[in-house]
Amino acid sequence: MFHNRAEALALALPAAVFAAVVFLAPVVILLAEGFRNADGWSVSAYTGFLSDPLNRTVFLRTLRLGATVTVVAAVIGYAAAFAIVNLPPKGKGRMIGLVVLPLMISPVARTYAWIVILGRTGIVNQALTSVGLTDEPVRFLFTETAVFVGLLQLFLPLMILALISALENMPKDAIPAARVLGANWFQVFWKVILPLTREGLVIGGTLVFTGSLTAYITPAILGGSKVLMLETLLYQRVTVANDFISASVIALILIVMSFAANLLLKRLATARSKR
Amino acid sequence: MNSRLFPVTVLVLVTAFLIGPFFIIVAASLSGGETLAFPPQGLSLKWVAKVFEVESFRESFAMSMLLAIGGTATALTLGIPASYALSRYRLPFGETVRTVVALPIIVPGIIVGLALLRYLVVPFGFNITLALFLAHTALVLPYAVRVVSASLNNLRSDIEEAAVLLGSSRAGAFFRVVMPNIRSGILAAFILGFVTSFNQVPVSLFLSGPGVRTLPIDMLSYMEITYDPSVAALSALLAFMSIGIVFLAERFLGFSRYV
Amino acid sequence: MSDPAFLSLEKLTLAYGDTVAVKDLDLSIRKGELVAFLGPSGCGKTTTMRSIAGLLKPQSGRISLDGADITRVAANRRSVGLVFQSYALFPHLTVFENVAFGLRLKGLSGAELESRVGAGLKSVGLTSFADRKPAELSGGQQQRVALARSMVMEPKVLLLDEPLSNLDARLRLEMRTELQRVQRETGVTMIFVTHDQGEALSLADRIVVMLNGAIEQIGTPEEIYNRPASAFVADFVGFENIFAVENGKLRAGNGPIELPGPLPDSAAGLAWRPRMVTLGSGPFQGTVRGASFSGSTREYLLDTPLGALKAEVDAAVPAHAAGTTLAFDLPVEKAAKLERFN
Q1: Sign of CA dihedral B194, A238, B213, B18
Q2: A275 to chain B, minimum CA–CA distance in Å?
Q3: B258 in contact with A at a CB cutoff of 8 Å?
Q4: H or E element at residue A37
Q5: pLDDT tens digit sequence for C70-81
Q6: Using the beta-carbon criterion (under 8 Å), do B110 and A114 form an inter-chain contact?
């Protein structure tokens, strides 16, 4: 540990100043704009925004999608992470590689694939028609289901990776110890695995939830204007109506939701592991 | 519970869900037909060839490469000294610095883009390319600091003290002793930053003008006009590029531990 | 064996993937016995123990306990306790909740739970630590919690994986006494795994020596210590001079060597502890290469026609310098007769 203050500041300040000027200041000004109207400071933009039923629908949909994607990702994530952790070292490395890989592929490309899969003449509809389940192609694109699937595919790897590292940090033999003491697999999960991996679940959950809230590409491609989420709504408000006030309101809502989710998950984690 | 069947089933399904769509894109892009379909109608490389003929794709690809390489390099230039200060010095307001630098990861990108458009580009007549460059740099900065800090924290700090005692200057100690040891961390940060910037959409959404567009944005607007398989072909090409980068990075750096 | 087997393993074969860890193992253990599985790492002792606990499914073979076939019974439905080498205490639970873990799963609660857990903690002397978390305890205390956690379940068999290896010398002695006391008071059948012959000899009623996934020898501590059946066991319990017997002669580096006395026909090999070697008289000659002093005794390393040899004598005898040539004898009547030479 070095103690030279001037040196330390000289090293750290450029990055901090850059982030503050290029990023923090404009964002803060943008957020502040949402609290102004012709008469000065006011929350009228917020009350106005939330009194519009369309906006409320979009807000609730965003929340709902974020929550369901997070929960489903957690369920699948535990199963997948548990299976991966128990693989022999070589297989484990390869599986982790396969999980990381999609994160590196452009989300536009990944989301685009779902058009091929879920479209009117997509694979799913072809299969349904050939089995005779439907005569007419089922509409998947531009539904909430399509957005859900797209988001899940986009963010599941983050949950799996977080849970893998949590499971690997569990004390050795905790699971067999619980088994020998009479716990069935369900009890092993609730009483041992879940409490001991809660931190990883919080990290993964926060990443998936905030990722889903603030995703733009997936709702834009798979939801279109029928299934707006807050981020696509923001874009629409700005480009269609030049409505920067709504944009500022949505921006703050998104930021607050991200922080709130993080705090809530953290709180849940500590509250339950205290006893 | 069958001890083998369950995990194997889970892994097969999850892999299919995560990787499967990629194969479908590749197949769709090899279609000989005029519209997007799977299975492809006949095999042909015409859509792959078309990707290279579309002029806007070429321009936006160049723009995205410029932003990804330049932005990440700038972010590392700012981020490495900051990480070093955060890990080796008792820095006044260290926590504040850490938070400010990490903020761009927390705040939705679309807001950053909009804020830059409104308060830099519009009032000051800022060049859009420059604004994009600043935005991408800010976006990559948190990753740069996180990965480089992790490498620095894994490196014993007494080696610098040893170097100084052996007569090296503080800066000399950094370049001769610290840098060689965190090289793979810096490389990993560069790759992560490059990929993040290259694939980024929300930040760039509002920052586009005539002839100035990143590749993902260009793809999105191309899709609004036509559903022909060229976007599939381009997606497949980009995915192959990413896979190549990740494969090499994993091979030489053990990349997945930095993600 | 007069008593009927309480726990028996028949033709047990265990494997991890394609690697066979234990092959065709047969073993029966009586009720109330304290048995040690002794062997080097990788010999299959821990694997065998985990299969008794139900944590590893056998490829083939049968495990029965108290008259019932438990081969296919899941780990959570066997009355088998296991104290892990790492103790495997649940870090998110207090000492009390750790001990209560299995009892709660059995549906116990309220006063009965309190009293059973209380009795368990009392028996290991940790009553006042009930509200602590495992991380706040010393290694020895953690192990006692793990012991109590298993014992309150009143298992038919208690398994212990290297119970003394993580403790310092003083605690090791304490724990040894503790285990013997628990066994005496509860009469529980105990099996512990160890790589330390001293531990096995001092604690067990019977020792099962294992090598490469098979049993090398079963016997009381005296039998194992004095009459090792094979070169491996002899080496493991401190016979340092071990020779194969071929055609009535000892096999040595420079050709066979004849011993003065008649050799027992049945022996595949002979082994002497360093202190069984007579130094100063006898038919053989050796050159002192080095010596080490250990308080009451002095051990010599000799170059002999048989190869390197270790001899131990009373430290009161004046020391011989390196390079000195000494006469020595390997008395056949003192040697351990090995049935197998491996």
Answers
A1: positive
A2: 31
A3: no
A4: strand A36-37
A5: 999 999 999 999
A6: no
Distance CA A168, CA C200 (A): 33
Residues of A in contact with B25 (CB under 8 A): 109, 112-113, 116
Q: What is the DSSP string of C46-72?
A: HHHHHHHHTSS--SEEEEEETTEE-TT
Taking an 8 Å cut-off on Cβ atoms, the answer to whether C82 and A180 are in contact is yes
Q: How far B100 CA sits from the closest chain A CA (Å)?
A: 6
Angle at B156 between CA B153 and CA B158, to 5 degrees: 130
More confident residue, C165 or C157: C157
Instruction: Please provide the size of chain A in residues.
Output: 275
A102 touches B: beta carbon within 8 Å: yes
Q: Where are the domains of chain A?
A: 53-273
Partners of C149 on chain A (C-beta within 8 Å) are 181
The pLDDT of residue A196: 93
> Across the interface, do A109 and B205 touch by the CB < 8 Å criterion?
no
Query: Using CA atoms, how far apart are residues C276 and C241, in angstroms rounded to an integer?
Result: 10
- Above 50 in pLDDT, residue C1? no
Q: Say how far apart CA A166 and CA A176 lie, in whole Å.
A: 17
Query: Minimal Cα distance from A194: which residue of C?
Result: C92
The residue of chain A nearest to residue B108, with distances taken between CA atoms, is A214
Residue B2 has pLDDT above 70, yes or no: no
| CB burial of residue C323 (10 Å; 0-12, 13-18, 19+) | exposed
**Assigned CATH class of C7-229:** alpha beta
Q: Minimal CA–CA distance to C218: which of C6, C33, C88? A: C33
Chain A residues 116-135 with CB within 8 Å of chain B: 116-117, 119, 121-123
For the domain made up of C233-338, the CATH class stated in words is mainly beta
Architecture (CATH level 2) of domain A53-273: Orthogonal Bundle (1.10)
Tell whether omega for the bond before B7 is within 30 degrees of 0, i.e. cis: no
Are B11 and A27 within 8 A, CB to CB? no
What does each C-alpha distance from A76 to A46, A154, A162, B11, B233 come to in angstroms? 37, 14, 13, 10, 30
pLDDT at C45: 95
Query: For the range B169-175, what are the long-range contacts, defined as Cβ-Cβ under 8 Å and sequence gap of 24 or more?
Result: B170/A2, B170/A7, B174/B84
Q: What pLDDT, in 10s, does the model give residues C216-241?
A: 999 999 999 999 999 999 999 999 99
Looking at the partner chain, which of B227, B236, B259 has a beta carbon nearest the beta carbon of A100? B259
Sequence ranges of the domains in chain B: 55-225+238-258
- Number of inter-chain CB pairs under 8 A, A vs C: 72
pLDDT digits (tens, 9 = 90+) for A150-187: 999 999 999 999 999 999 999 989 999 999 999 999 99
C73 contact A CB<8A: no
Q: Where are the beta strands (DSSP E) in chain C?
A: 7-16, 19-29, 34-38, 60-65, 68-69, 80-83, 157-161, 189-194, 206-211, 214-219, 241-246, 249-250, 269-272, 278-293, 297-304, 307-314, 325-329, 336-338
Nearest chain A residue (CA) to B164: A2
Which residues numbered 161-220 in B keep a CB inside 8 Å of some CB on A?
170, 195, 198-199, 201-202, 205-206, 216, 219-220
> Do you know the residue count of chain B?
259
pLDDT of res. C213: 93
- Which residues of chain A lie closer than 8 angstroms to B91, CB-CB? 8-9, 12
The answer to whether A12 contacts B223, with C-beta atoms less than 8 Å apart, is no
**What stretch(es) of chain C map to CATH 2.40.50.140?**
233-338
Please check whether the domain covering B55-225+238-258 is classified as CATH 1.10.3720.10. yes
Query: For the CA atoms of A188, A191, A192, A194, what is the dihedral angle to 10 degrees?
Result: 100
CA B61 to chain centre: 14
Q: For residue A43, which phi and psi values (nearest 5 degrees)?
A: -105, 15
Q: Is the pLDDT of residue B254 over 90?
A: no
